[in-house]
Amino acid sequence: MKLLILDAGHCLSLALAREASRRTDAELVIEQGLTVTAAELQTIAPDAVIIPPLAHPLSMTPAAVKAHADAVDICLDACQAQEVALVWCVSDQLYEDGFDVPIDEHVVPAPRDECLRRLVDTGDRIRAEYHRHLIVRLGPLFALEGSRAWLSEIIDSLVMGQNVRAAEDVIFCPTSADAVAMALMGMLQQQACGADAWGAYHLAGTEPVSAFTFTSMVRTQLATHLEGRGEMITLGEVQALNHHHDAKLRRVLNCRRVLDVFGVHQKPWRLEVGRMLDAWCLTRDQQSGAETGETA
């Protein structure tokens, strides 16, 4: 299975590269840009093109959101021309106002924000014009490296003693980029074996929480890891933000379909954070050893 990954520096692209390095059934071609032409697809001949999500579109400029949607449209045209599968990952923020209950895959986002509607229009076009697609809606991604990695940004700020502000009144499911990469590989491998299960899927972590609770838990686990290493660092504090004063906004994805169709289970975000902090500490040890001339 040969995959073309766009936006090389994205945290999901890096996670896909790590996952592919552990497998013998996947070959990756990773491009820096956000678009691909039919001629390039003919030369590369991938089985699928994967477009990582535009993270936090609600906080981005209209020009940036439009540019992303335009890029996806260009990729769609190229994939159609060469009959290559298209995988587009999208942020759960397209469900702008949230829902009181977990959001099923068949619920198409209907945001009020004009920029978000531009992304929905692209999704509508994909569904209407090209059967061989996966639209994968994700919770907020976290990782240790890459653009929009979130977890690394939190850790860096806390270690430098900076306070981190996080919303307390928006509930979502933090999602490990590594878990998404593993799931996408498995889904596409099944598709290559004839599953023919195209369409929209939700993929997120377990245990809905607020950004404030997530960030606070990261701080607690980070402090535990540092203390266990004998490091006494005064970490920054986590400060709560509130945007929705009447009631908490719930943006929780129901991931039952991806389980029923592909057997993909949601990954508990607490376990993923713990695993990533273990890896962060190992890297910290290696860097410290390199600076002192010691070997691990």
What percentage of residues falls in helices of 4 or more residues? 40-55%
Number of strands: 13
Structural class: alpha/beta
Q: What would the average pLDDT be, to the nearest integer?
A: 93
Discrete helix count: 9
Q: Which residues form runs of ≥5 with pLDDT under 50?
A: none
List the helices and strands and how they pair.
Layout: E1 2-5, H1 11-21, E2 27-30, H2 38-44, E3 48-51, H3 62-82, E4 85-91, H4 114-129, E5 133-138, E6 141-142, H5 151-159, E7 164-167, E8 170-172, E9 175-176, H6 177-192, E10 199-203, E11 209-210, H7 211-228, E12 238-241, E13 249-251, H8 256-262, H9 269-292
Parallel strand pairs: 1-2, 1-3, 3-4, 4-5, 5-10, 6-9, 7-12, 8-13
Antiparallel strand pairs: 8-11
Helix pairs in contact: 1-6, 2-3, 3-4, 5-7, 7-9
Kindly list the characteristics that best describe this protein.
single chain; 296 residues; alpha/beta; Rossmann fold; six-stranded parallel beta sheet; NAD(P)-bd_dom_sf
In short:
With 296 residues, the chain is an alpha/beta fold. It is 44% helix and 17% strand.
